[in-house]
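Reopening this ticket.

The earlier resolution said the output was attached, but the attachment link was broken on my side. Pasting everything inline this time so it's all in one place.
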Amino acid sequence: MLSRTADHLFWMSRYMERAENTARMLDVNYQTSLLPQSADAAEKGWKGLLGISELSGDFATRHGGEVTARNVMQYMVADDKNPSSIRSCLMAARENARAVRGTLTTEVWETQNQTWLEFQRMVAASDFHKDPSALFEWVKFRSHLSRGVTVGTMLQDEAFHFLRIGSFLERADNTARLLDVKFHAVESEFFGAAQAQSQGAGNGRDVEYDFYHWSAILRSVSGFEVYRKAYRNVIRPEKVAELLILRADMPRSLAACMNEVVTNLEFVANEQSGETLRRAGRLRADLQYGRIDEILSTGLHAFLTQFLERVNTIGAGISRDFLVPVQ
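Inline output:
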């Protein structure tokens, strides 16, 4: 396969996944902002969302210090100057799909094209502020449809595998960022329940708020019902971390994402991709044989920061080994 074709397929799926992830983060922040809380707490939530996407500086430059729900949602949904907005991601996904139209099935192309056209109409109507959750659910549905059509209609050749690699690499990156920011919002660092208790952390905490906080995190990755089925008890932070990091049977966990990345990398491996495959396999093995108490004993933030660095290195390796070199 031509490296340019692989590049367009890889980024088409990454941008589609990024649009869905952005919609998920916006939705959980919007739902959480409806809970009784102070204005400072609400503002902190929206600042955290900008921090996940590393857009705090750009937002501050263009909107000043006013971090409100309306400003952030406008910036993250419809701002074409924000490269990580849903609008920019869907447009980029569609343009990458158009560039390799002959490689895709008709169903995959029409799904991408229709998603972009419908989104333009919805934004032009400027009514998503009335019911933001409806738009976010629509974006998630279109992303699900895109993946389903890909799996259901495309030949499982190299093109298919590059689409899968892009999707799951992006998902791994986003899940790690979401976990890091949301755990950081509760405590400056999270070392697990036992150590936090020994340090006196959490005294006087609002148990009801904690429940909604962790429930919102789980719902943002479609994990609330999965958690209930897997653990059958109250929502505990260390179990949320375990589910979203180490449980390979949880579709959006770090372990599940790396399983998919390695599996699909093995199908497209060439003579120069050995080091990238080794790094991906090593990261998968660390997750496969890791234990949540060991991760928490050294600090969740440190683990997730290192994970993001390793994922970025793997992404750079994939670009070097298979895709169009960055000019």
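Reporter confirms the inline version is readable. Residues 43 and 73 are 13 Å apart (CA to CA). The two ends are 20 Å apart (CA to CA).
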